[in-house]
Amino acid sequence: MFFHTLRDRWHEAFEPIGNLVRIAREPYRFLDDLRRRRGELAELRLAGIPTVLVCSEPETVRQILTGSYDQFERYAGGVELFVDPLALILTDDEHHRQRRKLLNPAFNAESVRAFGPTMLEIADRVLDGLPQGATFPLIGPMQDITMRVILRCLFGVAEGPRFEELRALVIEYLQRVFGPEMLALGTVLTPTQAHATLMRLSRRARGSAPNAPFTPSRLPVQRIADRLGRIHALLEVEIDRCLAEGPEHRSDVLALMLRARFADGRPMSREELHAQLLMLVIGGYETTSLSLCWAVHCLVRHPEALARVRAEVAEVMQGGFDPAKVRDLHYLGAAIAESMRLYPIGIGVSRKLKRPMRLLGRDLAAGTIVMLSVYLIQRHPSLWSEPDAFKPERMLDRKPSAAVHFPFGGGVWRCLGAAFAEHEMRIVLARLFTRFAVEPDPDHRVHAQQKGITAGPSGGLPVRVAPIA
Ligand code: HEM
């Protein structure tokens, strides 16, 4: 009896840390185990965040995903640590609806198509520099492409010294904000409090002169805050520059945001512009580069599918590569959708109950957090035949419903940048596979690893490439 109690207490205290370690090492396998052990509404305790119920029952997932503002609020699961509370991704109800309305036009199909030539130019330039004859992690060049695309298409920053500084700062900020010092801070502060601390400490660098050299502090936490402050200082310059040039003469997302007005005629405040801009970089950078790597991982292991992708690109782009025509690359689109089904970079999307609810025979209190498991639903044996097989054809025959295939989340909070990411992925993959032969590293067994809020291929997906003559 005594030993039982001791074991229970030990388990109670260390399970959340053990879960965190296991989920970081192999997130997909962890979720498979969780469903096997605890069923389709499984309690998950993770160190540093509240307990969540992981749901993988298709009908319940559909109900919650299509739910409304008065039933649910979004639970951002730690995103509060690195974006401002004003950012769209942290807002709910009317506040969210209004901002979404304002930002949607910048990300609709027409706006996204206009970014195609810039995406193509950047993709080709980065692909020109791929190391040849050596094995290298593909994630590096994919991150390089996505960050450059964001800074050019969203912020309208012209390439040059300020572009390079902003690029390096954002990358360093994102690397460090998930590092040990922020994790340590997270043990004593909530993510919102930790972010408020960073913002307070960032004031010094926020006032730094954009043209003067910038040296961040070496002190823990302060060095992250300094980078955040400097990012905001450089964003301020970009906002001023856009206003001086006239937002009506530019077509980047920042210009569209400066032109947009709320229903009462108000423009976005400076504070809000900063919050949305930083959120867009964070939302679009790691997500797109990891999804690109997973698509490459699938295609290089399925030569017949890859051959079909190449043949389709050759046929559609007969008169020369036209980025607007990537929308006609249906098989490539299906291959991307299928790779995102097998390997979603976000293992789940979470919602918080606004009122008590009965789900799968359990009475749940208001405030309960339910994580809809994208990964488990997208591999659910009752929804997909051969759920673990890569079969792009299944996406061609019939578009799956939004409640069974939702790598971009769903409902009122569905990813704002989904069309942007899909367009960019088609351009990058079409260029990569028609310009290069790509081989996986035979000595590396690829599995998923969770870093921060995303799941990517281990080792950054080591590959070798050779130009196609
Ligand atoms: C393949 C790439 C991407 C994936 C897999 C992805 C995935 C997601 C997911 C799962 C969500 C949460 C949705 C929910 O809770 O239902 C989300 C939200 C969001 N994403 Fe993405 N994303 C990608 C690319 C992008 C890009 C390129 C941008 C912007 C440039 C972006 C901006 C956002 C924003 C702003 C939100 C919050 C939307 C809202 O609250 O209304 N994402 N994304």
Automatic annotation (TrEMBL):
InterPro entries for this protein: Cyt_P450, Cyt_P450_E_grp-I, Cyt_P450_sf, Cytochrome_P450_monoxygenase
This protein's UniProt keywords: Heme, Iron, Metal-binding
Family label: Belongs to the cytochrome P450 family.
Signal peptide: none
Protein residues bound to heme: 415
Cofactor entry: heme
GO molecular function terms listed in the Swiss-Prot or TrEMBL record: heme binding; iron ion binding; monooxygenase activity; oxidoreductase activity, acting on paired donors, with incorporation or reduction of molecular oxygen
Name this protein carries in UniProt: Cytochrome P450
Family matches, as Pfam families: p450 (PF00067)
UniProt lineage: Bacteria, Pseudomonadati, Myxococcota, Polyangia, Nannocystales
